[in-house]
Amino acid sequence: MTWTSSWTRWRCASAVAARRPGAAWRERPEPGARTRRSPAVPSVDDEDEDDDDDDDDEEEDDLNDLIKDIFQDDPTVLDLSKSSGRAVTNCAAHQANGRKCSPVYLGGSSAPHGLGTNTSHRTCDQLRCTTCDFRVIAIDDCEWNKSCDYFFFRNSMPDVSKLKVKALSKKGARAYACQCSWRSVHTLTDIREEQHLRWVCGKH
Fold first, then answer.
1. Is the pTM here over 0.85, yes or no?
2. What is the pLDDT of residue 91?
3. Cα separation of 194 and 131, whole Å?
4. Disulfide: which of 9, 46, 175, 198 matches 142 by Cβ 3.0-4.6 Å?
5. Mean pLDDT score, 98-114
6. Does an H or E element contain 50, and which?
7. Distance between CA atoms of 87 and 74, rounded to whole angstroms?
């Protein structure tokens, strides 16, 4: 066989193989043979998610840089934030530690103010009325004129200068009043004995 016939047969075999579906690009694997998987191609959605994550990271970095610049340009901002935190903490602690008088005492001008207990007979200076929701005021060395009435206190509270118009000078006495009730006291008195008064301790 000459080289010409060999070349011709090779050309014919190549032409037949080219007509087979997929023969020019891929050979059909034999039964039981292992095949190699093509690498996974990332989808468009995955690429979009990656881009979003990158954008979020960049925005967070920009925000952190902006905050640092503010503190560097104006150090008082940092001092103010610290002082405000301490003020809030102190206020919350004060409210948590607030105590009420038990029992609640009224008294004359010689009786000391403070937290009243069974052993410490101090007159409460944090009284509030549960009826009118006004804070109770107290004027030392005075008592109320007998002409006082509900309308006088309703129109005068909480202006002490107006209230003193009908407050008579009385050494050792103390004149108490809210917008709806009033009482002149000369000696230490347990408020539970005054049934008409709706005054309670608002915590010390």
1. no
2. 44
3. 15
4. 175
5. 93
6. helix 44-73
7. 21
